[in-house]
Protein backbone atom coordinates (compact mmCIF):
# COMPACT_ATOMS: atom_id res chain seq x y z
CA UNK A 1 0.00 0.00 0.00
CA UNK A 2 2.84 2.38 0.90
CA UNK A 3 5.97 1.93 -1.19
CA UNK A 4 9.31 3.65 -0.89
CA UNK A 5 11.73 3.32 -3.80
CA UNK A 6 15.36 4.49 -3.62
CA UNK A 7 14.20 6.83 -0.89
CA UNK A 8 16.73 9.23 0.63
CA UNK A 9 15.90 12.03 3.05
CA UNK A 10 17.91 14.23 5.38
CA UNK A 11 18.96 17.73 6.30
CA UNK A 12 21.91 19.02 4.33
CA UNK A 13 24.77 16.54 4.64
CA UNK A 14 23.11 14.54 7.37
CA UNK A 15 21.20 11.66 5.84
CA UNK A 16 18.44 10.32 8.04
CA UNK A 17 17.41 7.56 5.65
CA UNK A 18 19.64 6.59 2.75
CA UNK A 19 18.46 4.75 -0.33
CA UNK A 20 15.67 2.80 1.33
CA UNK A 21 13.32 0.41 -0.42
CA UNK A 22 10.37 -0.64 1.66
CA UNK A 23 6.80 -1.79 1.34
CA UNK A 24 4.09 -1.47 3.94
CA UNK A 25 1.29 -3.92 3.24
CA UNK A 26 -2.38 -3.08 3.04
CA UNK A 27 -4.67 -3.96 5.95
CA UNK A 28 -1.90 -4.00 8.54
CA UNK A 29 -0.91 -2.05 11.61
CA UNK A 30 2.72 -1.04 11.37
CA UNK A 31 4.69 0.67 14.13
CA UNK A 32 7.45 3.03 13.07
CA UNK A 33 10.31 2.80 15.55
CA UNK A 34 13.59 4.60 15.80
CA UNK A 35 15.75 6.49 18.23
CA UNK A 36 15.18 10.16 19.03
CA UNK A 37 16.04 12.30 16.03
CA UNK A 38 16.20 9.34 13.67
CA UNK A 39 13.59 10.90 11.40
CA UNK A 40 10.31 9.20 12.27
CA UNK A 41 8.28 12.39 11.95
CA UNK A 42 10.26 13.44 8.89
CA UNK A 43 9.44 10.15 7.19
CA UNK A 44 5.74 10.32 8.09
CA UNK A 45 5.51 13.91 6.89
CA UNK A 46 7.18 12.93 3.62
CA UNK A 47 4.67 10.11 3.09
CA UNK A 48 1.82 12.51 3.91
CA UNK A 49 3.03 14.87 1.19
CA UNK A 50 3.98 17.61 3.66
CA UNK A 51 7.70 17.43 2.98
CA UNK A 52 8.71 17.05 -0.64
CA UNK A 53 12.44 17.52 -0.16
CA UNK A 54 13.54 13.93 -0.66
CA UNK A 55 15.03 11.75 -3.35
CA UNK A 56 13.39 8.67 -4.78
CA UNK A 57 9.67 8.03 -4.89
CA UNK A 58 6.91 7.39 -2.41
CA UNK A 59 3.69 5.89 -3.69
CA UNK A 60 0.53 5.51 -1.63
CA UNK A 61 -2.03 3.21 -3.21
CA UNK A 62 -0.30 3.73 -6.56
CA UNK A 63 -0.26 7.54 -6.34
CA UNK A 64 3.09 9.30 -6.44
CA UNK A 65 2.99 11.52 -3.35
CA UNK A 66 5.27 14.17 -4.83
CA UNK A 67 3.12 14.87 -7.87
CA UNK A 68 -0.42 14.11 -6.68
CA UNK A 69 -2.46 17.27 -6.00
CA UNK A 70 -3.55 17.72 -2.38
CA UNK A 71 -7.29 17.15 -3.00
CA UNK A 72 -6.62 13.81 -4.67
CA UNK A 73 -4.02 12.70 -2.11
CA UNK A 74 -6.48 13.50 0.68
CA UNK A 75 -8.72 10.71 -0.65
CA UNK A 76 -5.88 8.21 -0.41
CA UNK A 77 -4.24 9.17 2.85
CA UNK A 78 -5.17 10.76 6.18
CA UNK A 79 -2.73 12.11 8.74
CA UNK A 80 -2.91 12.65 12.49
CA UNK A 81 -0.09 14.86 13.71
CA UNK A 82 1.37 15.42 17.17
CA UNK A 83 -0.14 18.86 17.25
CA UNK A 84 -2.82 19.34 19.85
CA UNK A 85 -5.76 21.22 18.44
CA UNK A 86 -8.21 22.91 20.74
CA UNK A 87 -10.77 24.92 18.88
CA UNK A 88 -13.42 26.64 20.94
CA UNK A 89 -17.02 26.47 19.75
CA UNK A 90 -16.39 23.54 17.41
CA UNK A 91 -18.16 20.32 18.39
CA UNK A 92 -16.60 16.89 17.91
CA UNK A 93 -19.11 16.23 15.16
CA UNK A 94 -18.03 19.41 13.32
CA UNK A 95 -14.37 18.40 13.65
CA UNK A 96 -14.99 14.93 12.28
CA UNK A 97 -17.23 16.36 9.56
CA UNK A 98 -14.28 18.39 8.26
CA UNK A 99 -12.65 15.05 7.49
CA UNK A 100 -15.22 14.84 4.68
CA UNK A 101 -13.67 17.95 3.07
CA UNK A 102 -12.10 16.06 0.14
CA UNK A 103 -15.59 14.92 -0.91
CA UNK A 104 -17.82 17.89 -0.12
CA UNK A 105 -18.74 20.81 -2.40
CA UNK A 106 -17.13 24.28 -2.45
CA UNK A 107 -18.69 25.37 0.84
CA UNK A 108 -18.42 21.99 2.57
CA UNK A 109 -22.08 20.95 2.61
CA UNK A 110 -22.63 17.43 3.99
CA UNK A 111 -24.89 14.92 2.29
CA UNK A 112 -26.81 12.25 4.18
CA UNK A 113 -24.07 9.76 3.28
CA UNK A 114 -21.42 12.13 4.65
CA UNK A 115 -23.32 12.50 7.92
CA UNK A 116 -23.60 8.73 8.27
CA UNK A 117 -19.84 8.35 7.77
CA UNK A 118 -19.23 11.02 10.44
CA UNK A 119 -21.43 9.16 12.92
CA UNK A 120 -19.80 5.83 12.11
CA UNK A 121 -16.34 7.34 12.58
CA UNK A 122 -17.23 8.74 15.99
CA UNK A 123 -18.74 5.36 16.88
CA UNK A 124 -15.58 3.52 15.78
CA UNK A 125 -13.39 5.47 18.22
CA UNK A 126 -15.98 5.22 20.99
CA UNK A 127 -16.77 8.93 21.02
CA UNK A 128 -20.36 8.87 19.76
CA UNK A 129 -21.66 10.19 23.09
CA UNK A 130 -19.25 13.16 22.84
CA UNK A 131 -20.50 14.30 19.43
CA UNK A 132 -21.91 17.63 20.62
CA UNK A 133 -19.14 18.48 23.07
CA UNK A 134 -16.47 20.98 22.11
CA UNK A 135 -12.77 20.15 21.98
CA UNK A 136 -11.72 22.77 24.51
CA UNK A 137 -13.60 20.87 27.22
CA UNK A 138 -12.05 17.46 26.64
CA UNK A 139 -8.99 15.58 27.82
CA UNK A 140 -5.94 14.97 25.62
CA UNK A 141 -6.90 11.35 25.08
CA UNK A 142 -10.41 12.28 24.04
CA UNK A 143 -9.14 14.94 21.64
CA UNK A 144 -6.73 12.42 20.14
CA UNK A 145 -9.63 10.05 19.51
CA UNK A 146 -11.65 12.77 17.86
CA UNK A 147 -8.75 13.61 15.56
CA UNK A 148 -8.48 9.91 14.68
CA UNK A 149 -12.23 9.83 13.97
CA UNK A 150 -11.66 12.81 11.67
CA UNK A 151 -8.99 10.79 9.83
CA UNK A 152 -11.42 7.84 9.59
CA UNK A 153 -14.11 10.11 8.14
CA UNK A 154 -11.71 10.85 5.30
CA UNK A 155 -12.37 7.18 4.31
CA UNK A 156 -8.83 6.74 3.04
CA UNK A 157 -7.19 3.34 2.69
CA UNK A 158 -4.10 4.67 4.49
CA UNK A 159 -3.83 6.49 7.84
CA UNK A 160 -0.58 7.87 9.25
CA UNK A 161 -0.26 8.85 12.92
CA UNK A 162 2.69 10.67 14.45
CA UNK A 163 3.20 9.54 18.05
CA UNK A 164 -0.49 9.08 18.80
CA UNK A 165 0.29 7.66 22.25
CA UNK A 166 2.20 10.62 23.65
CA UNK A 167 0.14 12.66 26.13
CA UNK A 168 -1.65 9.44 27.14
CA UNK A 169 -1.29 7.33 30.28
CA UNK A 170 -0.44 3.63 30.05
CA UNK A 171 -3.98 2.17 29.94
CA UNK A 172 -4.99 4.74 27.34
CA UNK A 173 -1.92 3.93 25.23
CA UNK A 174 -2.88 0.27 25.09
CA UNK A 175 -6.48 1.19 24.45
CA UNK A 176 -5.53 3.46 21.54
CA UNK A 177 -3.22 0.92 19.92
CA UNK A 178 -5.89 -1.78 20.22
CA UNK A 179 -8.25 0.62 18.50
CA UNK A 180 -5.74 1.12 15.68
CA UNK A 181 -5.32 -2.67 15.43
CA UNK A 182 -9.08 -3.13 15.14
CA UNK A 183 -9.28 -0.48 12.43
CA UNK A 184 -6.56 -2.23 10.44
CA UNK A 185 -8.10 -5.65 10.95
CA UNK A 186 -11.84 -4.90 10.67
CA UNK A 187 -11.80 -1.99 8.25
CA UNK A 188 -8.84 -3.18 6.20
CA UNK A 189 -6.96 0.11 6.70
CA UNK A 190 -3.22 0.44 6.31
CA UNK A 191 -2.07 2.18 9.46
CA UNK A 192 1.44 3.41 10.10
CA UNK A 193 2.16 5.07 13.45
CA UNK A 194 5.35 6.25 15.05
CA UNK A 195 5.95 5.53 18.70
CA UNK A 196 8.55 5.20 21.43
CA UNK A 197 6.57 2.46 23.18
CA UNK A 198 8.56 -0.66 22.27
CA UNK A 199 6.43 -2.87 24.43
CA UNK A 200 3.13 -1.75 22.93
CA UNK A 201 4.53 -1.72 19.41
CA UNK A 202 5.83 -5.27 19.61
CA UNK A 203 2.72 -6.63 21.26
CA UNK A 204 -0.05 -5.00 19.28
CA UNK A 205 1.34 -4.30 15.80
CA UNK A 206 1.45 -6.59 12.79
CA UNK A 207 4.73 -5.25 11.49
CA UNK A 208 7.57 -2.93 12.47
CA UNK A 209 9.24 -0.31 10.34
CA UNK A 210 12.54 0.42 12.00
CA UNK A 211 14.80 3.36 11.24
CA UNK A 212 18.26 1.94 11.81
CA UNK A 213 20.08 5.08 10.68
CA UNK A 214 20.54 5.39 7.74
CA UNK A 215 18.62 2.24 6.85
CA UNK A 216 14.89 1.59 6.96
CA UNK A 217 13.89 -1.99 7.71
CA UNK A 218 10.31 -3.24 7.42
CA UNK A 219 9.53 -6.71 8.73
CA UNK A 220 6.70 -8.54 10.47
CA UNK A 221 7.07 -8.30 14.26
CA UNK A 222 8.39 -11.85 14.82
CA UNK A 223 11.03 -11.57 12.13
CA UNK A 224 12.05 -8.14 13.33
CA UNK A 225 12.61 -9.42 16.88
CA UNK A 226 14.39 -12.53 15.65
CA UNK A 227 16.73 -10.48 13.49
CA UNK A 228 17.96 -8.70 16.65
CA UNK A 229 17.72 -5.19 15.18
CA UNK A 230 15.57 -3.91 18.02
CA UNK A 231 17.79 -5.27 20.82
CA UNK A 232 20.83 -3.73 19.21
CA UNK A 233 19.32 -0.35 18.43
CA UNK A 234 17.61 0.20 21.75
CA UNK A 235 20.35 -1.46 23.87
CA UNK A 236 17.88 -3.84 25.42
CA UNK A 237 20.80 -5.93 26.75
CA UNK A 238 21.33 -3.15 29.30
CA UNK A 239 17.95 -3.93 30.80
CA UNK A 240 18.84 -7.59 31.34
CA UNK A 241 21.96 -6.84 33.34
CA UNK A 242 21.55 -7.52 37.05
CA UNK A 243 22.67 -4.72 39.37
CA UNK B 1 -28.32 25.61 17.42
CA UNK B 2 -29.67 26.30 13.93
CA UNK B 3 -32.59 28.21 15.43
CA UNK B 4 -30.34 30.28 17.61
CA UNK B 5 -28.20 31.23 14.62
CA UNK B 6 -31.23 32.19 12.55
CA UNK B 7 -32.75 34.27 15.37
CA UNK B 8 -29.44 36.05 15.96
CA UNK B 9 -29.13 36.89 12.28
CA UNK B 10 -32.64 38.34 12.23
CA UNK B 11 -32.20 40.31 15.47
CA UNK B 12 -28.80 41.73 14.50
CA UNK B 13 -30.04 42.43 10.99
CA UNK B 14 -32.98 44.45 12.36
CA UNK B 15 -30.70 46.23 14.84
CA UNK B 16 -28.33 47.16 12.01
CA UNK B 17 -31.20 48.55 9.96
CA UNK B 18 -32.41 50.60 12.94
CA UNK B 19 -28.89 51.87 13.61
CA UNK B 20 -28.54 52.80 9.95
CA UNK B 21 -31.66 54.99 10.14
CA UNK B 22 -30.57 56.51 13.47
CA UNK B 23 -27.19 57.27 11.91
CA UNK B 24 -28.99 59.21 9.17
CA UNK B 25 -30.93 61.23 11.75
CA UNK B 26 -27.97 62.10 13.99
CA UNK B 27 -25.67 64.99 13.14
CA UNK B 28 -24.87 68.63 13.67
CA UNK B 29 -28.05 69.71 11.87
CA UNK B 30 -31.19 68.46 13.56
CA UNK B 31 -33.33 66.47 11.14
CA UNK B 32 -36.28 64.57 12.60
CA UNK B 33 -36.66 60.90 11.68
CA UNK B 34 -39.85 61.67 9.76
CA UNK B 35 -38.02 63.95 7.39
CA UNK B 36 -35.22 61.44 6.98
CA UNK B 37 -37.81 58.96 5.75
CA UNK B 38 -39.30 61.69 3.57
CA UNK B 39 -35.93 62.24 1.91
CA UNK B 40 -35.46 58.51 1.39
CA UNK B 41 -38.95 58.29 -0.07
CA UNK B 42 -38.22 61.28 -2.33
CA UNK B 43 -41.01 63.45 -0.92
CA UNK B 44 -38.83 65.99 0.93
CA UNK B 45 -39.24 69.51 -0.48
CA UNK B 46 -36.26 71.26 1.12
CA UNK B 47 -33.26 70.63 -1.18
CA UNK B 48 -30.84 71.48 1.67
CA UNK B 49 -32.20 68.70 3.86
CA UNK B 50 -32.06 66.29 0.95
CA UNK B 51 -28.44 67.18 0.27
CA UNK B 52 -27.46 66.72 3.91
CA UNK B 53 -29.20 63.37 4.21
CA UNK B 54 -28.16 61.93 0.85
CA UNK B 55 -24.75 63.41 0.07
CA UNK B 56 -23.38 63.50 3.58
CA UNK B 57 -25.19 61.23 5.97
CA UNK B 58 -26.22 58.45 3.61
CA UNK B 59 -22.74 58.19 2.13
CA UNK B 60 -21.24 58.19 5.62
CA UNK B 61 -23.67 55.57 6.92
CA UNK B 62 -22.99 53.35 3.89
CA UNK B 63 -19.28 53.80 4.58
CA UNK B 64 -19.77 52.84 8.24
CA UNK B 65 -21.52 49.64 7.14
CA UNK B 66 -18.81 48.88 4.62
CA UNK B 67 -15.88 49.69 6.91
CA UNK B 68 -17.27 47.72 9.84
CA UNK B 69 -18.07 44.66 7.75
CA UNK B 70 -14.82 44.75 5.73
CA UNK B 71 -12.45 45.20 8.67
CA UNK B 72 -14.24 42.59 10.78
CA UNK B 73 -14.19 39.94 8.06
CA UNK B 74 -10.55 40.75 7.35
CA UNK B 75 -9.75 40.32 11.05
CA UNK B 76 -11.59 36.99 11.10
CA UNK B 77 -9.57 35.75 8.13
CA UNK B 78 -6.28 36.74 9.71
CA UNK B 79 -7.16 35.21 13.07
CA UNK B 80 -7.97 31.91 11.42
CA UNK B 81 -5.06 31.93 8.97
CA UNK B 82 -2.46 32.80 11.60
CA UNK B 83 -4.32 30.82 14.29
CA UNK B 84 -3.84 33.79 16.53
CA UNK B 85 -6.61 35.39 18.56
CA UNK B 86 -4.73 38.70 18.54
CA UNK B 87 -4.31 38.85 14.79
CA UNK B 88 -6.15 41.48 12.81
CA UNK B 89 -5.42 43.86 9.98
CA UNK B 90 -4.14 46.46 12.43
CA UNK B 91 -2.00 44.31 14.72
CA UNK B 92 -0.16 42.56 11.91
CA UNK B 93 0.69 45.87 10.31
CA UNK B 94 -1.56 45.65 7.26
CA UNK B 95 -3.10 49.03 8.03
CA UNK B 96 0.40 50.37 8.70
CA UNK B 97 1.43 49.11 5.29
CA UNK B 98 -1.50 50.99 3.80
CA UNK B 99 -0.39 54.07 5.74
CA UNK B 100 3.10 53.78 4.32
CA UNK B 101 1.71 53.45 0.82
CA UNK B 102 -0.42 56.55 1.30
CA UNK B 103 2.44 58.45 2.98
CA UNK B 104 4.78 57.66 0.11
CA UNK B 105 2.09 58.80 -2.29
CA UNK B 106 0.95 61.94 -0.47
CA UNK B 107 4.27 63.01 1.04
CA UNK B 108 6.88 61.22 -1.03
CA UNK B 109 5.65 62.36 -4.43
CA UNK B 110 5.96 66.11 -3.66
CA UNK B 111 9.43 65.46 -2.20
CA UNK B 112 10.53 64.00 -5.50
CA UNK B 113 9.18 67.05 -7.25
CA UNK B 114 6.14 65.29 -8.62
CA UNK B 115 2.80 67.06 -8.42
CA UNK B 116 0.91 66.26 -5.21
CA UNK B 117 -2.17 64.77 -6.76
CA UNK B 118 -4.52 63.80 -3.98
CA UNK B 119 -6.66 61.72 -6.27
CA UNK B 120 -8.85 59.15 -4.60
CA UNK B 121 -7.85 56.44 -7.03
CA UNK B 122 -4.15 57.10 -6.44
CA UNK B 123 -4.56 56.95 -2.67
CA UNK B 124 -6.53 53.74 -2.90
CA UNK B 125 -3.92 52.22 -5.18
CA UNK B 126 -1.07 53.23 -2.87
CA UNK B 127 -2.86 51.81 0.17
CA UNK B 128 -3.59 48.57 -1.66
CA UNK B 129 0.01 48.15 -2.69
CA UNK B 130 1.20 48.97 0.84
CA UNK B 131 -1.25 46.54 2.45
CA UNK B 132 -0.38 43.76 0.00
CA UNK B 133 3.36 44.30 0.51
CA UNK B 134 3.04 43.94 4.30
CA UNK B 135 0.89 40.84 3.98
CA UNK B 136 3.42 39.22 1.68
CA UNK B 137 6.28 40.00 4.10
CA UNK B 138 4.36 38.75 7.15
CA UNK B 139 3.19 35.65 5.30
CA UNK B 140 6.66 34.85 3.94
CA UNK B 141 8.30 35.21 7.34
CA UNK B 142 5.40 33.63 9.22
CA UNK B 143 5.47 30.61 6.95
CA UNK B 144 8.87 29.63 8.35
CA UNK B 145 8.14 30.54 11.93
CA UNK B 146 5.72 28.37 13.84
CA UNK B 147 5.59 30.42 17.04
CA UNK B 148 2.67 32.82 16.86
CA UNK B 149 4.27 35.22 19.35
CA UNK B 150 7.20 35.71 17.01
CA UNK B 151 4.87 36.62 14.15
CA UNK B 152 3.00 39.01 16.40
CA UNK B 153 6.23 40.70 17.50
CA UNK B 154 7.33 40.92 13.87
CA UNK B 155 4.04 42.60 13.01
CA UNK B 156 4.46 45.10 15.84
CA UNK B 157 8.07 45.79 14.88
CA UNK B 158 7.03 46.25 11.29
CA UNK B 159 4.39 48.76 12.32
CA UNK B 160 6.97 50.67 14.36
CA UNK B 161 9.43 50.59 11.49
CA UNK B 162 6.80 51.86 9.12
CA UNK B 163 5.92 54.55 11.66
CA UNK B 164 9.54 55.70 11.65
CA UNK B 165 9.64 55.91 7.87
CA UNK B 166 6.36 57.83 7.87
CA UNK B 167 7.81 60.20 10.48
CA UNK B 168 10.82 60.90 8.29
CA UNK B 169 8.50 61.63 5.37
CA UNK B 170 6.42 63.93 7.58
CA UNK B 171 9.53 65.74 8.81
CA UNK B 172 10.66 66.45 5.28
CA UNK B 173 7.26 67.38 3.93
CA UNK B 174 5.59 70.72 3.38
CA UNK B 175 2.69 71.92 5.43
CA UNK B 176 -0.22 71.27 3.05
CA UNK B 177 0.89 67.75 2.18
CA UNK B 178 1.51 67.04 5.84
CA UNK B 179 -1.90 68.27 6.87
CA UNK B 180 -3.65 66.08 4.30
CA UNK B 181 -1.78 63.04 5.53
CA UNK B 182 -2.32 63.69 9.24
CA UNK B 183 -6.04 64.09 8.63
CA UNK B 184 -6.03 60.79 6.72
CA UNK B 185 -4.32 59.00 9.64
CA UNK B 186 -6.99 60.16 12.06
CA UNK B 187 -9.51 57.98 10.34
CA UNK B 188 -12.73 59.42 9.13
CA UNK B 189 -15.85 58.14 7.47
CA UNK B 190 -16.88 61.62 6.37
CA UNK B 191 -14.48 62.47 3.58
CA UNK B 192 -15.85 59.98 1.11
CA UNK B 193 -17.85 61.32 -1.82
CA UNK B 194 -20.61 59.60 -3.74
CA UNK B 195 -18.32 59.05 -6.71
CA UNK B 196 -15.70 57.40 -4.48
CA UNK B 197 -18.33 54.94 -3.32
CA UNK B 198 -18.33 53.61 -6.87
CA UNK B 199 -14.73 52.52 -6.37
CA UNK B 200 -15.02 51.38 -2.77
CA UNK B 201 -18.13 49.25 -2.99
CA UNK B 202 -17.08 47.11 -5.97
CA UNK B 203 -13.59 46.59 -4.49
CA UNK B 204 -14.98 45.58 -1.10
CA UNK B 205 -17.65 43.45 -2.79
CA UNK B 206 -14.97 41.48 -4.64
CA UNK B 207 -13.17 41.10 -1.28
CA UNK B 208 -16.36 39.67 0.23
CA UNK B 209 -16.89 37.30 -2.68
CA UNK B 210 -13.35 36.01 -2.19
CA UNK B 211 -14.04 35.68 1.54
CA UNK B 212 -17.09 33.56 0.79
CA UNK B 213 -15.16 31.48 -1.74
CA UNK B 214 -12.52 30.73 0.91
CA UNK B 215 -14.99 29.69 3.65
CA UNK B 216 -14.20 25.99 3.31
CA UNK B 217 -10.47 26.72 3.27
CA UNK B 218 -10.80 28.82 6.44
CA UNK B 219 -12.66 26.00 8.16
CA UNK B 220 -9.85 23.59 7.31
CA UNK B 221 -7.23 26.12 8.37
CA UNK B 222 -8.70 26.08 11.90
CA UNK B 223 -6.54 22.97 12.34
CA UNK B 224 -3.41 24.62 10.97
CA UNK B 225 -1.84 24.51 7.55
CA UNK B 226 -0.54 20.95 7.69
CA UNK B 227 -3.82 19.40 8.69
CA UNK B 228 -5.56 21.53 6.09
CA UNK B 229 -3.19 20.20 3.42
CA UNK B 230 -3.72 16.56 4.35
CA UNK B 231 -7.46 17.21 4.24
CA UNK B 232 -7.05 18.20 0.62
CA UNK B 233 -6.55 21.96 0.74
CA UNK B 234 -4.49 23.53 -2.02
CA UNK B 235 -2.67 25.75 0.45
CA UNK B 236 -1.02 28.10 -2.03
CA UNK B 237 -4.25 28.88 -3.80
CA UNK B 238 -6.14 29.28 -0.52
CA UNK B 239 -3.52 31.62 0.95
CA UNK B 240 -3.42 33.70 -2.20
CA UNK B 241 -7.20 34.11 -2.24
CA UNK B 242 -7.34 34.97 1.47
CA UNK B 243 -4.56 37.54 1.10
CA UNK B 244 -6.23 39.05 -1.94
CA UNK B 245 -9.52 39.20 -0.06
CA UNK B 246 -8.01 40.86 3.02
CA UNK B 247 -6.08 43.32 0.87
CA UNK B 248 -9.28 44.32 -0.93
CA UNK B 249 -11.29 44.56 2.28
CA UNK B 250 -8.87 46.16 4.74
CA UNK B 251 -6.72 47.91 2.14
CA UNK B 252 -9.65 49.64 0.44
CA UNK B 253 -11.40 50.97 3.53
CA UNK B 254 -8.08 52.04 5.04
CA UNK B 255 -7.22 53.87 1.85
CA UNK B 256 -10.35 56.00 1.94
CA UNK B 257 -11.06 56.25 5.67
CA UNK B 258 -7.63 55.99 7.22
CA UNK B 259 -6.53 53.31 9.64
CA UNK B 260 -9.45 52.40 11.90
CA UNK B 261 -8.30 50.25 14.77
CA UNK B 262 -9.68 47.45 16.92
CA UNK B 263 -12.88 46.73 14.97
CA UNK B 264 -11.13 44.03 12.95
CA UNK B 265 -9.53 42.58 16.04
CA UNK B 266 -12.47 42.67 18.44
CA UNK B 267 -15.52 41.87 16.30
CA UNK B 268 -14.65 38.28 15.35
CA UNK B 269 -14.35 37.46 19.07
CA UNK B 270 -17.62 39.13 19.97
CA UNK B 271 -19.30 37.30 17.08
CA UNK B 272 -17.83 33.92 18.02
CA UNK B 273 -19.17 34.39 21.51
CA UNK B 274 -22.62 35.51 20.37
CA UNK B 275 -23.08 32.77 17.80
CA UNK B 276 -21.14 30.12 19.78
CA UNK B 277 -19.56 29.01 16.53
CA UNK B 278 -16.21 28.74 14.80
CA UNK B 279 -17.74 27.54 11.52
CA UNK B 280 -16.92 30.14 8.90
CA UNK B 281 -20.15 29.44 7.04
CA UNK B 282 -21.79 31.19 9.98
CA UNK B 283 -18.87 33.38 11.00
CA UNK B 284 -18.18 35.20 7.71
CA UNK B 285 -21.70 36.65 7.30
CA UNK B 286 -22.20 37.03 11.06
CA UNK B 287 -18.96 38.93 11.58
CA UNK B 288 -19.75 41.20 8.63
CA UNK B 289 -23.15 41.98 10.14
CA UNK B 290 -22.01 42.59 13.73
CA UNK B 291 -19.02 44.57 12.47
CA UNK B 292 -21.32 46.80 10.41
CA UNK B 293 -23.67 47.29 13.38
CA UNK B 294 -20.89 48.24 15.79
CA UNK B 295 -19.30 50.60 13.28
CA UNK B 296 -22.65 52.37 12.94
CA UNK B 297 -22.76 52.70 16.74
CA UNK B 298 -19.23 54.14 16.69
CA UNK B 299 -20.23 56.62 13.98
CA UNK B 300 -23.33 57.70 15.92
CA UNK B 301 -21.27 58.22 19.09
CA UNK B 302 -18.62 60.12 17.17
CA UNK B 303 -21.26 62.42 15.73
CA UNK B 304 -23.02 62.97 19.07
CA UNK B 305 -19.83 63.90 20.91
CA UNK B 306 -17.91 65.28 17.90
CA UNK B 307 -14.99 62.90 18.41
CA UNK B 308 -12.78 61.18 15.80
CA UNK B 309 -14.24 57.75 15.01
CA UNK B 310 -10.86 56.09 15.57
CA UNK B 311 -10.94 57.07 19.23
CA UNK B 312 -14.39 55.51 19.64
CA UNK B 313 -13.44 52.20 18.01
CA UNK B 314 -10.36 52.04 20.24
CA UNK B 315 -12.30 52.80 23.41
CA UNK B 316 -14.90 50.15 22.56
CA UNK B 317 -12.39 47.64 21.20
CA UNK B 318 -9.66 47.75 23.84
CA UNK B 319 -11.78 46.26 26.65
CA UNK B 320 -12.64 43.36 24.33
CA UNK B 321 -8.98 42.73 23.57
CA UNK B 322 -8.06 42.92 27.27
CA UNK B 323 -10.82 40.44 27.98
CA UNK B 324 -9.49 38.03 25.30
CA UNK B 325 -6.01 38.15 26.77
CA UNK B 326 -7.26 37.53 30.31
CA UNK B 327 -9.58 34.75 29.17
CA UNK B 328 -6.81 32.96 27.24
CA UNK B 329 -4.60 33.30 30.27
CA UNK B 330 -7.07 31.61 32.59
CA UNK B 331 -7.86 28.93 30.00
CA UNK B 332 -4.28 27.70 29.69
CA UNK B 333 -3.89 27.41 33.42
Mean pLDDT of chain A: 91
Please tally the β strands of chain B and state the result.
Answer: 0
- In terms of DSSP E residues, the strand content of chain B is under 5%
Uncertain residue ranges of chain A: none
Task: List strands and helices in order, with pairings.
The complex is a heterodimer of chains A (243) and B (333).
Chain A: E1 2-11, E2 14-24, E3 29-34, H1 40-47, E4 55-60, E5 63-64, H2 70-73, E6 77-80, H3 92-98, H4 112-124, H5 140-153, E7 158-161, H6 170-187, E8 190-194, H7 198-204, E9 207-212, E10 215-220, H8 221-227, H9 229-233, H10 237-240
Parallel strand pairs in A: 3-8, 3-9, 6-7, 7-8
Antiparallel strand pairs in A: 1-2, 1-4, 4-5, 9-10
Helix pairs in contact in A: 3-4, 3-5, 4-5
Chain B: H1 2-25, H2 33-41, H3 47-81, H4 94-111, H5 120-144, H6 148-172, H7 175-185, H8 194-213, H9 215-221, H10 225-230, H11 235-257, H12 263-275, H13 280-305, H14 309-332
Helix pairs in contact in B: 1-3, 1-13, 2-3, 3-8, 3-11, 3-12, 3-13, 4-5, 4-6, 4-7, 4-11, 5-6, 5-11, 8-11, 12-13, 12-14, 13-14
Record keyword descriptors for this entry.
heterodimer; A: 243 residues; alpha/beta; Rossmann fold; 2 domains; six-stranded mixed beta sheet; four-stranded antiparallel beta sheet; 10 helices; 10 strands; 25% strand; B: 333 residues; mainly alpha; ABC transporter involved in vitamin B12 uptake, BtuC; globular
